[in-house]
Amino acid sequence: MCGGFTCSKNALIALNVLYVVVASILISVAVYGQASSLVTNLPIVGGILACGVFLILISLLGLAGAVKHHQVMLFFYMVILFLLFLVQFSVACACLAVNSDQQEMLAQQGWNKVNMDVKEQVQERFQCCGFQDRLIPANGTADYPSCDIVDRICCKNMVISPHCQCEPCMETLKERIDYAFKLCGGIGLFFSFTEFLGVWLTVRYRNQKDPRANPSAFL
């Protein structure tokens, strides 16, 4: 039965190696996103990079504690991992519980915060114009990019007219936004349970006696 000291140690090491791989993927995605012309200016790139760096640091702490059976390292690793589990589990549940109206509100806030270059890139990439409608407020200037280019793409060789226009971006991106929320929520929920497994393994491993250690050593 896999319940001894060596098994717990190897399981904890394997879990942290998995975290290192995931963190490396996150950092690679952030670097690729920073180099991509589509998401160069999006703040989410910095957030992904920060999550990757934080996760890899926590994983290294867990690896060091597991290899050395270091009580202090394992304690701090356990506490930080449990707090991370609570945060990630809450965020994942929130992503899965967001309805269409809340998704639209969050998307509107994100659209309002990005600059005109990003809006133009989104319009050209998804062939849409504006966010909820094509109307430009009286005080809207630089924050509202022109729709002429995307209208030509949507209409191709047809004459530009009120009957030939690109749809608003919210209509085009609605399904993608919903899919993104559900995907993020599902992945976050899955990894939150792996973090809970890591906490359980750490508690179990800390309370087990190393058969090669001095019997009189503090455990």
Instruction: Identify the overall geometry.
Output: elongated
Largest sheet: none
Mean pLDDT, to the nearest integer, reads 76
In percent, how much strand structure appears in the residues?
A: under 5%
User: How does the helix and strand content classify structurally?
Assistant: mainly alpha
Helix content: over 70%
- N-to-C order of helices and strands: HHHHHHH
Q: Whole-number radius of gyration?
A: 24 Å
Total strand segments: 0
The number of helical elements comes to: 7
Low-confidence stretches: 37-41
Distance between the amino and carboxyl termini:
23 Å
Structural description of this entry:
- The protein is mostly helical and 219 residues long.
- The chain is built from seven helices and no strands.
- It is elongated and about 80 Å long.
- The two termini are 23 Å apart.
- Residues 37-41 have low confidence and may be disordered.
Brief sketch in words of this structure:
The protein has helices at 5-35, 44-68, 71-97, 100-113, 116-126, 148-155, 169-206. It is 70% helix and 0% strand. It is built from seven helices and no strands.
Name some characteristics of this structure.
219 residues, mainly alpha
Topology:
Layout: H1 5-35, H2 44-68, H3 71-97, H4 100-113, H5 116-126, H6 148-155, H7 169-206
